[in-house]
């Protein structure tokens, strides 16, 4: 009788242990699934951050290029004004030298 009780008790404990292991495996599987989803979201977030950083770099480069273009335009305008001024100066000089030649003759 005691041997039968011990056997029943052993079987009962084995069954409980099996159920506990099944529950543990089920919970572990759920946690792994959630971790996979979280890792996927983390990867997407990292990609978004990298994309934003690239966008900022591109915007910065575009701003820098715009400033360079504006500086080149301003430089060109300044050079053109200096050329016009020099041309006017040489016209005056040639007019004066022509007047001097007329006076000399």
How is this structure best described in words?
- There is one protein chain.
- By secondary structure, the protein is mostly helical.
- The relative contact order is 0.03.
- The N and C termini lie far apart (154 Å).
- It has one helix at 2-104.
Write the layout of secondary structure elements.
Elements: H1 2-104
Outline of this structure?
The protein is mainly α. The protein has one helix at residues 2-104. The chain is built from one helix and no strands.
* H/E element sequence: H
Please state the average pLDDT score: 92
* DSSP strand count: 0
Q: For the report, how would you describe the main beta sheet?
A: none
Radius of gyration from CA coordinates: 45 Å
- What structural class do helix, strand and pairing data support? mainly alpha
Return residue spans where pLDDT drops below 50 for at least 5 consecutive residues: none
Dominant shape: rod-shaped
Helix content: over 70%
State the end-to-end distance: 154 Å
% residues in beta strands: under 5%
How many helices?
1
Salient structural properties:
single chain, about 100 residues, about 0% strand, rod-shaped
């Amino acid at each position: 009788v005691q041997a039968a009780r011990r056997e029943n008790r052993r079987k009962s404990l084995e069954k409980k242990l099996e159920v506990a292991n099944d529950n543990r495996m089920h919970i572990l599987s759920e946690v792994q699934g959630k971790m996979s989803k979280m890792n996927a979201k983390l990867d997407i977030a990292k990609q978004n951050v990298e994309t934003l950083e690239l966008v900022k770099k591109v915007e910065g480069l575009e701003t820098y290029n715009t400033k360079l273009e504006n500086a080149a335009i301003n430089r060109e305008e300044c050079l053109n004004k200096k050329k016009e001024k020099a041309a006017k100066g040489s016209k005056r000089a040639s007019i004066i030298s022509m007047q001097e030649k007329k006076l000399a003759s």
